[in-house]
Design a protein that fits this description.
Elements: E1 8-13, E2 16-17, E3 23-27, E4 30-35, E5 42-50, E6 54-64, H1 90-109, E7 131-137, H2 144-147, E8 158-162, E9 170-172, H3 183-196, E10 211-218, E11 224-230, H4 235-248, E12 254-259, E13 273-276, E14 281-285, E15 288-292, H5 302-316, E16 323-327, H6 333-338, E17 344-349, H7 352-364, E18 370-374, H8 377-380, H9 383-389, E19 394-397, H10 406-415, E20 419-424, H11 427-437, E21 441-449, E22 459-466
Length: 468
């Protein structure tokens, strides 16, 4: 295929599924990764990248649709970046996710593996997110047919999500199905109020404008926290808008606002200010309560988080006598969830704010035998640390997408705890790490859990036993 630009391949049969939501096809001995197609589709594809033995492309048109395709239930599907798989029946999504985990572990891990347990799908496949973030922008993403109309300008106030792969335009969302109401009512009400009162929406290119983003957190306990982020402080305007919101939505238990003059949307270094309520919400997993603030990390799907934590507890197989180390412990939720079955819980995390949340959560649940420490595990866990806190019998590790550092893996091999339970949101990096751990451990159990229906994301839990 050489370096020619604009290569178009017709009647390409999509035969399988690859990671990160891409499907794959083969053409003249080359693997082609394709977006927004599913196995069984026959498509015409334009290549966007063309390498010696692989290529990437996007669909120009469909010659034939796969038999098991379904009609997406959201009108914004394919434009907004939120869901990638609404065109697949949920049972099929689970099948592909299960296969993705298995292929990653086999291909990258190259280890002896036990039979994999069937993936735990979500009972609730819509309205499952407890946290969502909306963006307000003065540039609306225009649909292809709108681009042809000279009467329609992109300079319009919009409230929703960034368009897929486009940082400066926002899809004006009508109904998002990822979070239960009042999430859509709230976003639309704020948008309408701001337009009626001629309030400026944020301009991401010029870095100016008042109304910027909004986080909505809705707990299974019924508590509802809203944090509205403004580009600058105008006390009169802030008070007018927030007073109006509280009048319209008395179900909000905590309303905050944050002033963000930075060039990015992260809340790092910013201080959310409480306008109404206690400044946080309380979420529950089984009998345990967790205090979640506007900057706290908490699993995004509460119902599936409970099932995920039950899996971790089962694989840890605790008798009540063990010392459990919870690495990358975040706000302490896994360690606290396991605490009834352990004699001691030690949590370690790099983020100091998360550790202070973890300590509060332990106190809230009256877990007196849990201690939390800020630091890098590979440096913190030395002989004197073990002398003070005990060596771990079981290690729980839940690293970010990039997986664990080699330094930490070597430390874990050195510690040689009887069991490791490895929770991962990226089967590829998990497989790489398991391969390194296989010098001393064998994989005893594999349990995928689907936390995010209609997306390509997948969590996987593996139980490892020390070889004797």
């Amino acid at each position: 295929m050489g370096k020619k630009k604009n290569i178009v391949i017709e009647n390409l049969k999509i035969t399988g599924y690859a990671a990160e939501g891409k499907s794959l096809a083969r053409h003249e001995g080359k693997v082609i990764f394709v977006d927004l197609a599913v196995p069984g589709d026959v498509v015409t594809v334009r290549l966007t990248r063309d390498k010696k033995d692989w290529a990437e492309g996007h669909v120009l048109s469909f010659t034939e649709y796969a038999a098991d395709r379904v009609i997406p239930f959201c009108s914004h599907f394919g434009i907004c970046g939120g869901c990638q798989w609404q065109m697949l029946p949920y049972a099929k999504q689970l099948e592909y996710k299960q296969d993705q985990v298995w292929q990653s572990l086999k291909r990258i891990g190259k280890m002896d593996l036990p039979e994999m347990m069937p993936i735990l799908g979500a009972q609730q496949t819509r309205g499952y997110r407890n946290k969502i973030e909306y963006t307000f922008s003065n540039r609306r993403y225009l649909l292809r047919e709108e681009l042809q109309d000279p009467e329609i300008s992109a300079i319009q106030d919009a409230a929703g999500f960034h368009a897929r792969g486009i940082f400066d335009k926002v899809v004006d969302v009508d109904t998002c199905f990822l979070q239960a109401e009042p999430t859509n009512f709230l976003r639309k009400e704020i948008k309408q109020w701001a337009i009626a009162h001629k309030v400026s929406f944020y301009d991401i290119l010029r870095h100016e404008g008042f109304l910027r983003t909004m986080q909505v957190r809705l707990c299974q306990t019924g508590e509802l926290m809203v944090n509205i982020v403004f580009g600058y402080l105008d006390e009169t305007l802030v008070n007018r808008l927030l007073t109006y919101i509280m009048e319209q939505f008395p179900s909000i238990t905590t309303l905050l606002y944050t002033i963000n003059p930075k060039r990015n949307d992260s809340l790092t270094g910013l201080r959310p200010i409480v306008f109404h309520g206690k400044g946080y919400v309380v979420e529950k997993l089984e009998r345990f309560s967790f205090k979640v603030g506007p900057k706290s990390f908490f699993q995004t799907n509460t119902a599936q988080a409970e099932r995920l934590y039950q899996v971790i507890r089962n694989l840890a197989g605790l008798s009540g006598k063990e010392t459990v180390y919870d690495l990358y412990c975040g706000t302490g939720s896994i360690g606290i969830f396991l605490s009834d079955h352990a004699s001691r819980v030690i949590g370690v995390e790099l983020v100091p704010e998360a550790i202070s949340d973890a300590k509060e959560n332990a106190a809230l649940n009256q877990v007196g035998h849990a201690d939390f420490f800020t630091g890098d595990v590979s440096e913190l866990c030395n002989d004197s640390f073990f002398q003070t806190h005990g060596r771990p019998d079981v290690i729980i590790t839940d690293p970010p997408r990039i997986g664990m550092t080699e330094k930490l893996i070597n430390k874990m091999l050195d510690i040689a705890a009887e069991k490791i339970v490895y929770v991962s949101c990226n089967p590829a990096t998990q497989a790489r790490d398991l391969q390194l751990l296989s010098h001393k451990y064998h994989v005893a159990a594999i349990q995928p859990v689907d936390m995010f229906p209609h997306t390509h994301h997948i969590e996987n839990v593996t139980g490892l036993f020390l070889k004797h």
